[in-house]
Amino acid sequence: MALDGIKALTFDTGGTILDWHSGLREAFAAAGARHGVTREWSHLVNEFRRRSLRSIVNLGEHAPPTVNFDDVFGTRNRYGRVEFFAGCYHPTYKAQGLDHLETFDSGLAMQTCKAILDDWTNTGYDPFAAPMETGLAWSGKKVGHNTAAINRARDVCRRMPGLPGDIPLRTDRNRYPVNRAFLDVPQDEPEIHAAPGFEGEVHAFNLFAYLSRSDVTWNPSVSSVCKHSLFCPTTEEYILPVKHANDRVEWFLQLSDQIEWQIEDGVTGLPRAKIVMRPGDVAAMPADIRHQGFARKRAMLLVWENADPNLPWLHAQGTVPRSPAEEFWPESAPQRR
Ligand SMILES: [Fe+2]
Protein backbone atom coordinates (compact mmCIF):
# COMPACT_ATOMS: atom_id res chain seq x y z
CA MET A 1 0.00 0.00 0.00
CA ALA A 2 1.38 3.42 -0.99
CA LEU A 3 1.69 5.75 1.98
CA ASP A 4 2.66 8.88 -0.03
CA GLY A 5 -0.86 10.34 -0.24
CA ILE A 6 -1.75 9.79 3.41
CA LYS A 7 -1.92 13.00 5.41
CA ALA A 8 -3.47 11.77 8.64
CA LEU A 9 -4.27 8.53 10.40
CA THR A 10 -7.22 8.26 12.75
CA PHE A 11 -8.20 5.29 14.83
CA ASP A 12 -10.58 4.35 17.55
CA THR A 13 -9.19 4.17 21.09
CA GLY A 14 -12.08 3.26 23.41
CA GLY A 15 -12.40 -0.52 23.38
CA THR A 16 -9.60 -0.97 20.80
CA ILE A 17 -6.50 0.35 22.54
CA LEU A 18 -8.08 0.98 25.90
CA ASP A 19 -9.79 -2.10 27.34
CA TRP A 20 -12.24 -0.24 29.53
CA HIS A 21 -14.56 -3.27 29.81
CA SER A 22 -12.26 -5.72 31.63
CA GLY A 23 -10.93 -3.14 34.07
CA LEU A 24 -14.37 -1.89 35.04
CA ARG A 25 -15.82 -5.40 35.26
CA GLU A 26 -13.03 -6.54 37.58
CA ALA A 27 -13.36 -3.39 39.72
CA PHE A 28 -17.14 -3.85 40.03
CA ALA A 29 -16.67 -7.56 40.85
CA ALA A 30 -14.07 -6.77 43.52
CA ALA A 31 -16.31 -4.11 45.09
CA GLY A 32 -19.25 -6.53 44.97
CA ALA A 33 -17.20 -9.31 46.59
CA ARG A 34 -16.28 -6.99 49.47
CA HIS A 35 -19.97 -6.47 50.18
CA GLY A 36 -21.15 -10.01 49.37
CA VAL A 37 -23.02 -8.84 46.22
CA THR A 38 -23.16 -10.90 43.04
CA ARG A 39 -24.46 -9.47 39.77
CA GLU A 40 -24.04 -9.82 36.03
CA TRP A 41 -21.08 -7.41 36.07
CA SER A 42 -20.57 -7.32 32.27
CA HIS A 43 -24.11 -6.12 31.85
CA LEU A 44 -23.59 -3.44 34.48
CA VAL A 45 -20.35 -2.29 32.83
CA ASN A 46 -22.09 -1.94 29.46
CA GLU A 47 -24.84 0.08 31.08
CA PHE A 48 -22.23 2.28 32.82
CA ARG A 49 -20.51 2.87 29.48
CA ARG A 50 -23.80 3.62 27.73
CA ARG A 51 -24.74 6.23 30.32
CA SER A 52 -21.29 7.83 30.47
CA LEU A 53 -21.22 8.15 26.66
CA ARG A 54 -24.61 9.81 26.80
CA SER A 55 -23.01 12.45 29.05
CA ILE A 56 -20.09 13.24 26.75
CA VAL A 57 -21.13 12.58 23.14
CA ASN A 58 -21.90 15.85 21.30
CA LEU A 59 -21.05 17.70 24.48
CA GLY A 60 -21.33 21.47 23.99
CA GLU A 61 -23.33 21.24 20.78
CA HIS A 62 -26.54 22.79 22.07
CA ALA A 63 -25.58 24.07 25.53
CA PRO A 64 -22.39 24.77 27.48
CA PRO A 65 -20.62 21.49 28.36
CA THR A 66 -21.27 20.16 31.84
CA VAL A 67 -18.55 17.49 31.86
CA ASN A 68 -14.92 17.91 30.93
CA PHE A 69 -11.52 16.35 31.39
CA ASP A 70 -9.64 19.63 31.59
CA ASP A 71 -8.22 18.97 35.02
CA VAL A 72 -5.94 16.32 33.55
CA PHE A 73 -4.15 18.85 31.35
CA GLY A 74 -2.61 22.18 32.36
CA THR A 75 0.34 24.52 32.55
CA ARG A 76 2.60 25.85 35.29
CA ASN A 77 4.55 29.11 35.24
CA ARG A 78 8.30 28.62 35.63
CA TYR A 79 9.28 32.25 35.01
CA GLY A 80 10.44 32.41 31.40
CA ARG A 81 9.63 28.73 30.89
CA VAL A 82 6.24 27.01 31.04
CA GLU A 83 5.51 23.43 32.04
CA PHE A 84 2.82 21.66 30.03
CA PHE A 85 1.53 18.58 31.80
CA ALA A 86 -1.02 15.84 31.42
CA GLY A 87 -2.08 13.82 34.43
CA CYS A 88 0.76 15.05 36.70
CA TYR A 89 -1.56 16.62 39.28
CA HIS A 90 -4.38 14.10 39.02
CA PRO A 91 -4.14 11.37 41.67
CA THR A 92 -5.41 8.51 39.48
CA TYR A 93 -3.32 9.33 36.41
CA LYS A 94 -0.26 9.80 38.63
CA ALA A 95 -0.80 6.50 40.46
CA GLN A 96 -1.13 4.64 37.15
CA GLY A 97 2.05 6.21 35.72
CA LEU A 98 0.07 7.99 32.98
CA ASP A 99 1.52 11.44 33.76
CA HIS A 100 3.64 13.40 31.29
CA LEU A 101 5.39 16.76 31.57
CA GLU A 102 7.38 18.89 29.14
CA THR A 103 8.86 22.37 29.61
CA PHE A 104 8.94 25.03 26.87
CA ASP A 105 10.19 28.57 26.43
CA SER A 106 7.39 31.02 27.43
CA GLY A 107 7.49 32.88 24.09
CA LEU A 108 7.09 29.69 22.09
CA ALA A 109 4.35 28.45 24.46
CA MET A 110 2.39 31.70 24.07
CA GLN A 111 2.78 31.66 20.28
CA THR A 112 1.67 28.02 20.08
CA CYS A 113 -1.33 28.46 22.40
CA LYS A 114 -2.48 31.49 20.40
CA ALA A 115 -2.17 29.49 17.16
CA ILE A 116 -4.24 26.64 18.69
CA LEU A 117 -6.85 29.12 19.93
CA ASP A 118 -7.00 30.78 16.51
CA ASP A 119 -7.38 27.37 14.92
CA TRP A 120 -10.65 26.59 16.71
CA THR A 121 -12.09 30.07 17.10
CA ASN A 122 -14.82 30.86 14.57
CA THR A 123 -15.93 34.26 13.29
CA GLY A 124 -17.95 36.03 15.97
CA TYR A 125 -16.81 33.85 18.86
CA ASP A 126 -14.68 35.53 21.52
CA PRO A 127 -12.72 33.04 23.65
CA PHE A 128 -12.20 35.66 26.38
CA ALA A 129 -15.90 36.50 26.71
CA ALA A 130 -18.50 34.41 28.49
CA PRO A 131 -19.78 31.61 26.21
CA MET A 132 -23.38 32.85 26.25
CA GLU A 133 -22.29 36.27 25.00
CA THR A 134 -21.00 35.22 21.61
CA GLY A 135 -22.96 32.04 21.13
CA LEU A 136 -21.65 28.50 20.96
CA ALA A 137 -19.92 28.72 17.61
CA TRP A 138 -16.65 27.34 18.98
CA SER A 139 -17.85 23.77 18.50
CA GLY A 140 -18.45 22.15 15.16
CA LYS A 141 -17.07 23.04 11.76
CA LYS A 142 -14.37 25.71 11.55
CA VAL A 143 -15.82 28.87 10.04
CA GLY A 144 -13.53 31.91 9.71
CA HIS A 145 -11.47 33.44 12.50
CA ASN A 146 -11.55 35.98 15.31
CA THR A 147 -7.82 36.72 15.45
CA ALA A 148 -8.49 40.30 16.61
CA ALA A 149 -10.14 39.02 19.81
CA ILE A 150 -7.22 36.66 20.50
CA ASN A 151 -4.61 39.37 19.96
CA ARG A 152 -6.61 42.17 21.62
CA ALA A 153 -4.31 44.86 22.95
CA ARG A 154 -4.24 45.65 26.66
CA ASP A 155 -4.76 49.30 27.54
CA VAL A 156 -1.58 50.46 29.22
CA CYS A 157 -2.13 53.27 31.68
CA ARG A 158 0.60 55.62 32.90
CA ARG A 159 -1.16 56.54 36.15
CA MET A 160 -4.96 56.17 36.21
CA PRO A 161 -7.69 55.83 33.57
CA GLY A 162 -9.42 59.13 32.86
CA LEU A 163 -6.48 61.42 33.70
CA PRO A 164 -5.57 63.99 31.04
CA GLY A 165 -3.11 62.37 28.62
CA ASP A 166 -3.83 58.89 29.96
CA ILE A 167 -6.17 56.17 28.64
CA PRO A 168 -9.84 57.22 28.76
CA LEU A 169 -12.49 55.77 31.05
CA ARG A 170 -14.67 53.10 29.47
CA THR A 171 -17.79 54.41 27.77
CA ASP A 172 -20.48 53.30 25.31
CA ARG A 173 -18.58 55.18 22.61
CA ASN A 174 -15.13 53.57 22.98
CA ARG A 175 -16.06 49.88 22.56
CA TYR A 176 -16.93 49.31 26.21
CA PRO A 177 -20.74 49.17 26.69
CA VAL A 178 -22.06 48.08 30.09
CA ASN A 179 -22.12 44.30 30.19
CA ARG A 180 -25.57 42.68 30.17
CA ALA A 181 -24.93 41.26 33.65
CA PHE A 182 -24.15 44.67 35.18
CA LEU A 183 -27.00 46.85 33.93
CA ASP A 184 -27.86 47.65 37.56
CA VAL A 185 -24.40 49.04 38.38
CA PRO A 186 -24.54 52.85 38.92
CA GLN A 187 -22.45 54.69 36.35
CA ASP A 188 -22.02 58.01 38.16
CA GLU A 189 -18.45 59.15 38.75
CA PRO A 190 -17.08 60.45 42.08
CA GLU A 191 -17.42 64.14 42.87
CA ILE A 192 -14.03 65.78 43.09
CA HIS A 193 -13.67 69.06 44.95
CA ALA A 194 -10.03 70.06 44.58
CA ALA A 195 -8.69 72.94 46.63
CA PRO A 196 -7.63 76.01 44.62
CA GLY A 197 -4.32 75.34 42.93
CA PHE A 198 -4.83 71.58 42.84
CA GLU A 199 -7.40 71.41 40.03
CA GLY A 200 -6.26 68.77 37.52
CA GLU A 201 -4.08 67.07 40.13
CA VAL A 202 -6.80 65.22 42.02
CA HIS A 203 -8.44 62.28 40.29
CA ALA A 204 -10.83 59.44 41.07
CA PHE A 205 -13.04 57.11 39.11
CA ASN A 206 -15.84 54.62 39.79
CA LEU A 207 -14.16 51.20 39.76
CA PHE A 208 -17.50 49.32 39.77
CA ALA A 209 -18.63 51.29 36.71
CA TYR A 210 -15.26 50.59 35.05
CA LEU A 211 -15.54 46.85 35.78
CA SER A 212 -19.17 46.73 34.62
CA ARG A 213 -17.85 47.58 31.15
CA SER A 214 -15.24 44.81 30.98
CA ASP A 215 -15.36 42.83 27.71
CA VAL A 216 -13.43 39.82 29.05
CA THR A 217 -13.80 37.26 31.83
CA TRP A 218 -11.15 35.72 34.12
CA ASN A 219 -8.75 38.47 33.03
CA PRO A 220 -7.92 41.58 35.05
CA SER A 221 -9.62 44.82 34.01
CA VAL A 222 -6.90 46.69 35.86
CA SER A 223 -3.45 45.53 36.96
CA SER A 224 -2.42 48.18 39.41
CA VAL A 225 1.29 47.86 40.13
CA CYS A 226 2.61 49.69 43.18
CA LYS A 227 6.05 48.45 44.21
CA HIS A 228 5.49 44.76 45.10
CA SER A 229 1.71 45.03 45.28
CA LEU A 230 -0.35 43.79 42.34
CA PHE A 231 -4.01 44.79 42.56
CA CYS A 232 -6.09 43.11 39.86
CA PRO A 233 -9.84 43.82 39.85
CA THR A 234 -11.51 41.47 37.39
CA THR A 235 -14.88 40.15 36.22
CA GLU A 236 -15.67 36.44 36.16
CA GLU A 237 -18.43 34.41 34.53
CA TYR A 238 -19.05 30.72 33.81
CA ILE A 239 -15.90 28.62 34.40
CA LEU A 240 -12.27 29.59 34.81
CA PRO A 241 -11.07 27.60 31.75
CA VAL A 242 -8.10 26.05 33.56
CA LYS A 243 -7.29 25.07 37.11
CA HIS A 244 -4.99 27.85 38.25
CA ALA A 245 -1.92 26.58 40.10
CA ASN A 246 -0.94 29.28 42.58
CA ASP A 247 2.73 30.14 42.75
CA ARG A 248 2.28 32.65 45.61
CA VAL A 249 -0.34 33.58 48.18
CA GLU A 250 -3.30 35.13 46.39
CA TRP A 251 -5.88 37.29 48.19
CA PHE A 252 -9.45 37.43 46.95
CA LEU A 253 -11.99 40.09 47.87
CA GLN A 254 -15.43 39.37 46.44
CA LEU A 255 -16.82 42.67 45.16
CA SER A 256 -20.19 41.57 43.76
CA ASP A 257 -22.37 38.51 43.14
CA GLN A 258 -20.97 35.06 43.91
CA ILE A 259 -18.09 32.80 42.91
CA GLU A 260 -17.65 29.17 43.96
CA TRP A 261 -14.10 27.88 44.22
CA GLN A 262 -12.91 24.30 44.18
CA ILE A 263 -9.53 24.04 45.84
CA GLU A 264 -7.10 21.14 45.55
CA ASP A 265 -3.62 20.34 46.76
CA GLY A 266 -1.18 21.81 44.22
CA VAL A 267 0.78 18.58 43.83
CA THR A 268 -1.50 15.63 44.56
CA GLY A 269 -4.72 17.17 43.20
CA LEU A 270 -6.60 15.88 46.25
CA PRO A 271 -9.52 18.07 47.35
CA ARG A 272 -8.85 20.61 50.11
CA ALA A 273 -11.94 22.78 50.17
CA LYS A 274 -14.87 24.24 48.36
CA ILE A 275 -15.73 27.82 49.22
CA VAL A 276 -18.58 30.06 48.19
CA MET A 277 -17.65 33.75 48.18
CA ARG A 278 -20.27 36.48 48.41
CA PRO A 279 -19.82 40.28 48.34
CA GLY A 280 -17.45 41.41 51.08
CA ASP A 281 -15.93 37.95 51.64
CA VAL A 282 -12.12 37.78 51.79
CA ALA A 283 -9.97 34.70 51.25
CA ALA A 284 -6.23 34.17 51.19
CA MET A 285 -5.58 31.30 48.79
CA PRO A 286 -2.38 29.51 49.80
CA ALA A 287 0.61 29.27 47.46
CA ASP A 288 0.49 25.46 47.30
CA ILE A 289 -2.97 24.89 45.82
CA ARG A 290 -4.71 24.74 42.46
CA HIS A 291 -8.17 26.20 42.16
CA GLN A 292 -10.98 26.67 39.69
CA GLY A 293 -13.79 29.21 39.98
CA PHE A 294 -17.41 29.07 38.86
CA ALA A 295 -19.71 32.09 38.57
CA ARG A 296 -23.29 31.48 37.48
CA LYS A 297 -23.75 35.22 36.98
CA ARG A 298 -20.91 37.57 36.01
CA ALA A 299 -19.22 38.69 39.24
CA MET A 300 -16.60 41.24 40.25
CA LEU A 301 -13.54 40.03 42.13
CA LEU A 302 -10.48 41.82 43.43
CA VAL A 303 -7.35 39.68 43.17
CA TRP A 304 -4.36 40.95 45.15
CA GLU A 305 -0.96 39.37 44.61
CA ASN A 306 2.59 39.71 45.79
CA ALA A 307 4.81 40.89 42.92
CA ASP A 308 8.10 40.35 44.76
CA PRO A 309 10.82 40.18 42.06
CA ASN A 310 12.56 37.54 44.20
CA LEU A 311 9.74 35.03 43.60
CA PRO A 312 11.60 33.03 40.90
CA TRP A 313 14.58 32.77 43.26
CA LEU A 314 12.34 31.76 46.20
CA HIS A 315 10.77 29.09 43.98
CA ALA A 316 14.19 27.76 43.03
CA GLN A 317 15.01 27.51 46.76
CA GLY A 318 11.63 25.97 47.60
CA THR A 319 11.01 28.72 50.16
CA VAL A 320 7.95 30.50 48.79
CA PRO A 321 5.69 31.34 51.75
CA ARG A 322 2.63 29.08 51.64
CA SER A 323 0.24 31.20 53.68
CA PRO A 324 -0.13 34.81 54.83
CA ALA A 325 1.16 33.68 58.23
CA GLU A 326 4.38 32.37 56.66
CA GLU A 327 4.66 35.50 54.53
CA PHE A 328 4.36 38.08 57.30
CA TRP A 329 5.16 36.26 60.54
CA PRO A 330 7.41 33.35 59.51
CA GLU A 331 8.69 32.78 63.08
CA SER A 332 5.16 32.10 64.45
CA ALA A 333 3.66 30.32 61.41
CA PRO A 334 2.59 26.68 61.80
CA GLN A 335 5.32 24.22 60.82
CA ARG A 336 5.15 22.75 57.33
CA ARG A 337 3.75 19.25 57.22
FE1 LIG B 1 -5.00 31.50 41.49
List the helices and strands and how they pair.
Layout: H1 20-34, H2 41-56, E1 73-77, E2 81-86, H3 91-95, E3 100-105, H4 106-120, H5 147-150, H6 207-212, E4 219-220, E5 224-226, E6 229-239, E7 244-245, E8 250-254, E9 259-265, E10 271-277, E11 282-285, E12 289-306, H7 311-317, H8 324-328
Antiparallel strand pairs: 1-2, 2-3, 4-6, 5-6, 6-12, 7-12, 8-11, 8-12, 9-10, 9-12
Bound molecules: fe (ii) ion (FE2).
Give an overview in words:
A hairpin with a 2-residue loop joins β5 and β6. This protein is of the alpha+beta class. The chain folds into 4 domains: 69-120, no CATH class; 122-152, no CATH class; 158-192 and 200-206, no CATH class; 216-337, Jelly Rolls (Sandwich). α1 (20-34) crosses α2. It has helices spanning 20-34, 41-56, 91-95, 106-120, 147-150, 207-212, 311-317, 324-328; strands spanning 73-77, 81-86, 100-105, 219-220, 224-226, 229-239, 244-245, 250-254, 259-265, 271-277, 282-285, 289-306. The radius of gyration is 24 Å and the shape is globular. The structure holds fe (ii) ion. Fe (ii) ion binds next to loops. Fe (ii) ion binds at residues 244, 246, 250, 285, 291.
